[in-house]
């Protein structure tokens, strides 16, 4: 039998045009075969702009990624602009993962045009906003399906998540709430006792906890505890291709995985906020009794003169909104996670940052709206 023709070996050609270089990749790139190195290709040249031509590239494996990684790192050190737009999307994605897994102190590439940088940042921001809007829309459709067909909802999973994000969070919420109440009362006592208004520390602690600190601190605690757990769990499922399996079976990941978590957080957050309010007020009572010599009965009566149902309802509205924000941020970042252990960790971190950011923004908006409405 005639021998099969040998596969063309990996080849690299460098064509200079002034200070710009075009790197042509050709042949078959295999990690088991000899391959060119970027150091040999660029020797004797100092390009300021490097672009790629992959039209003659036939087959490739990780050896091509190693060559491109060396090229990219050389461009960063030399301050040259590396144009990777000619590469297929999959190659760019894998190259980005390789670069993130080998983070070094290599300087950031600042040779790109300023307008290009702004344009790419704007496009990236638009894409992220579109992804968030699309996910929120899918969650809204899921809520509509829940209202129409409640029997198809996964209530068992929802109850399990309620236990995880509700009952299991009581210890840390208790500790934070008592400490916040103690801190508010002690700080207020330092000022109020100078003017003989010791009793008004009950007003300060009561209104602060009920309207603001109870819901806010509970949401921040759950963002770091539950939101990160949601992102890590869903990110791990995506890395194990369990999300792909659900899509293959025609099962919506939002209905199957996201909605039970959102419903659980939306139901448990107001209850946890009420619990935090009570413990914060008790913490303030301890300071009032120990430092200001105010009896618990007097403290309680004075607190009731300032706190009414509108204050309690405003705190509960905030708590429900914060619960939805924590759930959406955690599930969204989990579904966006890369398929690696590092991607799962980054998703958990991003979920916490995103949740806290939107919690603060929502709290500020509620403050303005409640002030306009006179609540």
Structural account:
- With 375 residues, this protein is α/β, with parallel strands linked by helices.
- The protein has two domains: 11-101, Transcription Regulator spoIIAA; 153-373, no CATH class.
- It has helices at residues 38-42, 62-78, 89-101, 114-148, 155-165, 170-192, 201-239, 242-248, 253-290, 296-306, 309-336, 341-373; strands at 11-17, 20-28, 49-59, 81-83.
- The chain has a four-stranded mixed beta sheet with strand order 1-2-3-4, with helices on one face.
- β1 and β2 (20-28) form a beta hairpin.
- It starts with 10 loop residues before the first strand and ends with a helix.
Please outline the major beta sheet.
Answer: 4 strands, mixed
Based on secondary structure, the structural category is alpha/beta
Rounded average pLDDT: 85
Indicate the overall shape: elongated
Helix percent band: 55-70%
Approximate strand percentage: 5-15%
Spatial separation of the terminal alpha carbons = 90 Å
Put simply, the count of helices is 12
Number of strands: 4
Strand arrangement across the biggest beta sheet? 1-2-3-4
Flag low-confidence runs.
Answer: 105-110
Q: How many domains, in number, for the residues?
A: 2
